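Researcher: For the record, we're logging two predictions in this thread. I'll number them. Prediction 1 follows.
Model: Prediction 1, sequence and structure:
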Amino acid sequence: MHPPDSIDYEFILRKAWPIILANIAVPLLGLVDTAVIGNVGTVEDLGAIAFGALIFSFVYWSFGFLRMGTTGFAAQAYGAGDELEVRAILGRSLLLATSLGLLLIFLQWPIRLVAFYLLTGGETVEVIAQQYFSIRIWGAPATLSIFALMGVLIGLGQSRTLLLVQLFLNGLNMVLDIWFAGLLGWGAEGIALGTVIAEWSTVVFSGWLVFNLLNARKSSTEQFWSKRQVFDPIKLRRTLSANTDIMIRTLLLVFSFAWFTNQSARFGDVVLAANHILLQFVSFAAFFLDGYAFVVESLVGSAIGKKSRVLFDAAIKKSTVLALVTAWTLAMWIWLFGDVIMVQLTDFPAVRTAANEVLFLAAIYVMFSFVAFQLDGIFIGASYTRQMRNAAFISLMVYLLVWWVVIDRYGVNGLWWAMIIYVSARAGALLFYFPSLRKSIVP
């Protein structure tokens, strides 16, 4: 397979829908875990899983650079027709992922100490959560390696294979969780064990898929991996630098949402719960917008590898039009039908009332967020990671300044307006760097 020579709306939709389905499949696993423990486990088991899942979500999200950094480099090598470099990128990414995963296992004691110092629960919950953590941590090398393998698949535009990997991971995980926790009654430990087995099984399965894909595209006289290419010091430094930039950008992004949640708590439990529900709407919209962003990562990287400004412009224009239509459709859906969905999510009238009062602001956030998603995809595909890091810092400063100015006068509404301005500032900061990115593509 070769990178596309032309791009139309149908092509982008065909690439985006498997990614959207893969994204939607992720939260289903959490629902199954909750349902299993909610029916056969104890309240303490349920609380322990919530604690454990929160810890690993934060830890693994911090290493999301393994997926994003790999995608940009793989897409550019693919566009340039350099299959040897594509395989070398896979080798470097897997080496980094495995090393970091083993480091997490080695550092599990201090990680656990810090995590449970920050999270406070009942004594029984904390004991069970620590048992859950002690099992789940052994899946770290597999999980991070899956990030690297998914990065290659996205970079090569293999969105259907990505969906297959995600369905395999979540499907096997669900089956094992039901078996271990439900049928065998192992509770939270069973959930953790099922997840670890699913993670290691998936890294083998996805590794086999990627190996076969890349092996079929090399000549019979070539080695799959060139040691000299994989350990090229210049490219290793570039990989580490890019991944460090993305990690900083991701941590700043995590901080911004954590700040929003923490400030929501200042207005009481009802507002905290209401904003949590509205953030679920925002997350649901992100599943769709990420689909277009992932596709544009691949297409932009490929266009840069081919040194084609025409393909670069076409990829951005057509994917952004689709993202705009999707974002505004989702925003209108939230605005018009959010109160109806709210009834299914909570039976507390006070929470529904509080959420409905700022529902239109959540819709406005989604309406404007697609620009930041698209630009993230463009910059990841181009491996313009330093600019992403800088933009994340600038937009966070804008966010905190706006929050400081409006919070006392406008309360919860001010908090939401600060978030809307924040996501707009993310887009604005990246747009500042966009002209130089485009000019760097010299035919």
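Researcher: Logged. Prediction 2.
Model: Prediction 2, sequence and structure:
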Amino acid sequence: MADSNKVLEILHAMSKKIEAEKEYLTALDQPIGDSDHGINMARGFAAVEQKLPALEGKDIGTILKTVGMTLVSTVGGASGPLYGTAFLKAGMACAGKTELDTAGFLAVLEAAIEGVKQRGHAALGEATMIDAMVPSLEAMKAAAAAGQPAKEVLAAGEKAAWAGAESTKPMVATKGRASYVGERGIGHQDPGATSFTDLLETVAAAF
């Protein structure tokens, strides 16, 4: 499915995607957060972009752990620790590997999601990135179990992630800054669920 070079290519594309979506992600954050999700994410992935040349020839685990540490140190707010943890856990799950097949990718994503759950103490239905992450993983597992090729597995995950992000609109957030606004947050799509879906869309587009 992907080797180390492909992972670096995808990370480069992620940086460009987040930069392109920066204003929209920040606009989503304005009614319910600190109005900085897109700005923070773009800063973090710009820092990741600068690290990529030095990561050529490294294994996938090392690459992802470096991304995680970079995001933790450069992305402000709750997003830094959450996305940083996701990439760190993903890197730990594929330590030493230079290639990932579909099953390996799903195992890495599952580790990332578990890391976010633990770090954010979040569960489904609380208007967080988990509401996009978990349905996308479940959809991809089902597609893989049905024998679908990687491209179709990722397409199923992307579709489920967008539906998951959309599903956060009627929810009352109980985690993070969005929880402070209570029911006034109803009708607003969670920025973290949206940025995760942007990143998964970037992975899908690479295939």
